[in-house]
Amino acid sequence: MSAVEAAAGKAQAMVRDSVKTVIAASMVGTAIEFYDFYAYGTAAANYFPKVFFGDTTNPTVALLASLLTFAIAFIARPLGSLVFGHFGDRMGRKTTLVVSLLTMGIATFLIGCLPTYSQWGIVAVAALCLCRFVQGIGLGGEWSGAALVATENAPEDKRALYGSFPELGAPIGFFLSNGTYFLLETFNDDDAMLAWGWRVPFLLSAVLVIVGLVVRVQMEETPIFRMAQEQKKVVKSPLTEVFKKSWKEVMQATFLVAVTYTLFYTLATWSLAWGTKSVEDGGGNLGFTNREYLLMLMIAVCVFAAFIIISCVNADRFGRRRVITISSVLLVVFALLFPYLLDSGVVGQRNFAATLLFLCIGFALMGTAFGPIGAFLPELFDANVRYSGSGIGYNLAAIVGAAFVPTIATWLSHHWGVHSVGLYLGVMAVCCLISVITCKETKDVDFTK
Fold first, then answer.
1. The domain spanning residue 273 has which CATH number?
2. Which pLDDT score is estimated for 7?
3. What residue stretches are annotated with the Major facilitator superfamily (MFS) profile domain (predicted)?
């Protein structure tokens, strides 16, 4: 092949989707991911203890059992990342993302169709766990593929900004899920929510999945993957390559992300139960209703979205390491101080100002830590193993940082008070800080290699 033909082939390979298509294709999957997971987290905290675990006489035990089912999808996610990562690096980002979205969407919809414990007994619980497991498999291939669609279509000096597109799906999905529950609880009483209302968010997820499928079927393969195909750099066994050459980067990626998961589910799932339940039911006796707390969460998630964009702009300007290092240090400080804002003995009951301050500061730090991850993780790996490497790291973080967060935080707070939850978050922040310090700055890496 002549030099002219090679140059023409490279130019053709580097043709990018429009910015609108990149935004839609990368953002929609993460939006559905967080919508699905937070819909489940809200249901697990408020409804599933009675719908699926109503046979127990101890409300705290029922809550803990319900929250344990929350962990199942996180355990399944690394398996999903192995499967979808392999095909994403072998066959391309587009096809793999379509299949992962469909897998995730079907499982979520089926959760909304399940019989309750009073109808099917233990079989209903088993069916719930199976759907949750399949949901996790689909989600295992989602984030890394979405991040690659964004960053592999980005100009070199705007990879973190483009990487914010899938990250912004998190507050969007969170807002949609919260908004759905808020409206349902506004127009229905507790009996209606337990009878059928909890199903609605899961059934409505089908609409998001259909929109996502339409967008992703129409998009092109990413230019960097097309270039890897042109240059015969696609490897037969991406997973072998990752664990052989990039195991250190997988571990770094895991602990870079883990603290963001711990923080998110501390803010969104554990604190919801803590703020709305009595001490006898595993809460903190803060005296808020579900609707009041959901409204505060919806306000705080807007702060989350704003700080994702701010942090990504700064990451493109000053580097990924600097932004995440600062966020990790601030998270340690936050972890030591926030329990005072959620201690009813200190702030009293129904203290909206203290609770909203806790949520807004927490989500600001969440956005700062989470935003640059969309570019930082893919940049740690070569193009021919990028889907597998970033996906495995991200989904191992789901086990380390998220799978048992609501359960552990509920158990800790029930036995040793809210300050023990702060120490738990602080340990995770220190792990992130150690990880980011050991990483090299990736802002100026050659992303085509």
1. 1.20.1250.20
2. 39
3. 22-443
* Domain containing residue 55: 17-438
Identify whether the C-beta of residue 166 lies closer than 8 Å to the C-beta of residue 106: no
Q: Which residues contact 348 (CB under 8 A, 6 or more apart)?
A: none
DSSP string of 254-322?
Answer: HHHHHHHHHHHHIIIIIHHHHHHS-GGGTS------HHHHHHHHHHHHHHHHHHHHHHHHHHHHH-HHH
User: Is 320 in contact with 442 (CB distance < 8 Å)?
Assistant: yes
Q: What number of CA atoms fall less than 13 Å from residue 187's CA on the CB side?
A: 8
| Tokens at 60, concatenated | 């705290």
Contact call for residues 209 and 29 (beta carbons, < 8 A): no
Instruction: Quote the pTM value.
Output: 0.83
Residue 67 is assigned to a structural domain of this protein: yes
pLDDT digits (tens, 9 = 90+) for 178-211: 899 989 988 999 899 999 999 999 999 999 888 8
Return the structure tokens found at 413.
Answer: 């707070």
